[in-house]
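Chapter review: from sequence to fold.
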Amino acid sequence: MTQFEDLVRGMPVEVAEVNRSLKVLWEQEGNVLTRASLINLAVYSEAPDALSANTQLMEQVTLEHACRIILLAANPAASKQRVQAWISAHCHRTGAGARQVCSEQISFLLDGSSSDLIRNILFSHLDSDLPLYLWWQGELSNQIDQQLWSWVDRFFFDSHSWREPAHQISILRSSVASARSRCVLCDLNWRRLIHLRLAFAQAFDHPWAAQQIDAIRDLAVRYNPEYWITAILFICWVACQLGWELEEKGEFEYRFKSGKAGTPVTIRLTALPGPWIGHVKLGFEQGYLEVNWLGNFLETTLQGESRLKQILPAGETTLAGLVREELARGGEHRTFLGALKLAEELWKTE
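The token string follows.
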């Protein structure tokens, strides 16, 4: 019988024997372990330590989401094509019971990989009754197989680390359009902003703030230098929600026109070490709205006829936490798509 420690660590298997080995494994361990799965979660990466890092990440993700995990670690520069495979599982105890619920994981190391190889390995190891969520880590490639897009239900990526975000989005749009894909785009960078956006928007529930929308004159955002793309997504969300139109863009300053009143609004970005977005200040003709990141909390200050302060949760900051939150939410992310269209204009270099 397979030892539980070996199951956690991962057992090497022949690629052709993966599914059969998993079946035998669960038959042997069925008295103490229960396999559970709601989705296929495939993760593609070309990072040197991808298998180890993503295995640890999946241990955290499966605390809340049972799935069949397929890790694809590729080394396209390898001179010879070779595929190695391992099977493992992430098991978590259920309540007060003795049984453990497990998410199975299949890991592949692809040397000299091609788009055809990635597609064939992935498709042949899916649980066919479940939707496919694909997380593509790092830069996108024009070589992504078109047939793959037609199978993906939700496509995960993290735009914050992209070197040329406008080019990356162009690849993504053309790939999805040419494949006539139904997949929903899920940017973890957008998920990073959820609690800041909620805190900012909630301030306009106050009657006084709602009346000041046409009196907005400027917006200042302080962000971590590594999260410029995140900061752009945030200001584009603000602009889209308030109906602003872009008039002029600079390196760190942008000028918009208020959709209703035609009033000019200036946005300034300041890069300083700290949280991805540590400070936001929206200026009215008289008064302001301010949001500060304070560790695990966000502090909002609304200064108008009176001064109103509020403390709200800052949400998850770890990558595993962002993935868990994204997996817990559905929908088509239409608000994101609107902000993304404007962000592409600001990301473009002349």
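Two observations follow directly from the output. DSSP finds twelve helices and 17 strands in the chain. The CA atoms of residues 93 and 100 lie 4 Å apart.
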